Amino acid sequence: MARSLVTGGQGFIGGHLCLALLERGDDVVVLDLPGASGRALTLHGIAGEVEPVEGDVADRGAVDRAVKGADSVFHLAARTLVGPAAEDPAGTFRSNVEGTWTVLEACRDNGAGRVVIASSDKAYGPSDSLPYREADELRPAAPYEGSKAAADVIARSYCDSWGLPVAVTRLANVYGGGDLNFSRLIPELVTAYLADREPRIRSDGSPLRDFLHVRDAVGAYLAIESVLPAHGGEAFNAGTGEPRTVAEVIASVKAATGSHRDPDFLCDRNPDGEIDSQYVDATKLGEASGWCPNMAFADGIAEAVNWYRVFAGSDPD
Ligand SMILES: NC(=O)c1ccc[n+]([C@@H]2O[C@H](COP(=O)([O-])OP(=O)(O)OC[C@H]3O[C@@H](n4cnc5c(N)ncnc54)[C@H](O)[C@@H]3O)[C@@H](O)[C@H]2O)c1
Question: For a surface tag, which of 93, 235, 289, 299 has the fewest beta carbons within 10 Å of its beta carbon?
């Protein structure tokens, strides 16, 4: 039986990835912070089915315990919010950059077979040339972007230098049920409308983003794993290629919840340090693996609304 490690498995995408790995029959190990226990894995009802390792990804001892014997390593653990990252850049770099090289060192020493490292479309930074393509220069501006770009470059160097079969994911904005990061756009919108309050929107509604459903994101992780080691040292975008403005997303969620409330726009532009427009070209991953997104946005939003309704303990109808 294959053994897979998911760092950050108590998080939003990691929890869904653990579910998919268990479904395909893997033994699954999760490394996450002690305080994170009981979150995503409990939500998915799989807390008892994975082997937990509690610790920090920058702690080599904890990472070694988690990596030992793993055929595949999916490294998702990171501080993931743009605003808090700007408030604590050192802590963010420690988790996101030192954490990544610690995982890579452990993978190198333990001979991990396939290593998939979470970068992000944010690693590209602000650009007038969209969609982002993998060959584009990484030009991060804000600390979170810089941390993902650094992790991205470091990860690929482990393939070039030591032949470690590692590839990186550059995913668009991921959404869906199970995201407990309530400051993110879609969780805030859905929970606000379900609670019959005005959503607080950090921009003026103009930023443009590509929204990828979380099961399509998990599919991208597994597709990238499947093209290793042939595509070692490479980065892969994953997104829908159909960007939407924040205002369009607001309208979709408003319609899906049946709300009549208008949001409270907290800013008359995009907040400082956040990219105005971004979306990716995912042709490369499609050609390498056959991956393509399956979830239509309206269906994904309807499903997410239902998930948060149940989560909040409301009547699903
Ligand atoms: N959600 C998105 O839209 C998106 C888009 C592109 C890339 N990503 C990347 O995907 C990965 C997963 O994102 P997510 O949305 O699931 O985030 P999340 O915040 O829900 O989950 C991150 C997990 O990492 C854990 N973690 C944080 N610091 C840690 C540390 N020092 N040691 C051990 N565990 C630690 C957290 O406890 C949490 O369980 C991240 O690397 C993120 O940068 C996310």
Answer: 299
Q: Which pLDDT score is estimated for 37?
A: 56
Segments of the chain scoring below 50 in pLDDT: 314-317
Pocket of ligand 1 (CB under 6 A): 8, 10-14, 32-33, 36, 56-58, 76-80, 95, 99, 118, 120, 148, 171, 173-174, 181
**Which secondary-structure segment (H or E) carries 54?**
strand 51-54
**Torsion-angle region of residue 51: left (phi > 0), alpha (psi -120 to 50) or beta?**
beta
Take atom 2 of ligand 1 and give the residue whose Cα is closest: 174
Exactly one of 144, 158, 193, 279 is catalytic; name it: 144
pLDDT digits (tens, 9 = 90+) for 147-182: 999 999 999 999 999 999 999 999 999 999 999 999
**Mean pLDDT across the chain:** 95
Catalytic, 144? Answer yes
The set of residues, in sequence order, having a beta carbon less than 8 Å from that of 174 and lying 6+ positions away, is: 12, 13, 211, 212, 213, 214, 217
Q: Which domains does the chain have, with CATH numbers?
A: 3-172+214-238 (3.40.50.720), 175-209+242-278+295-311 (3.90.25.10)
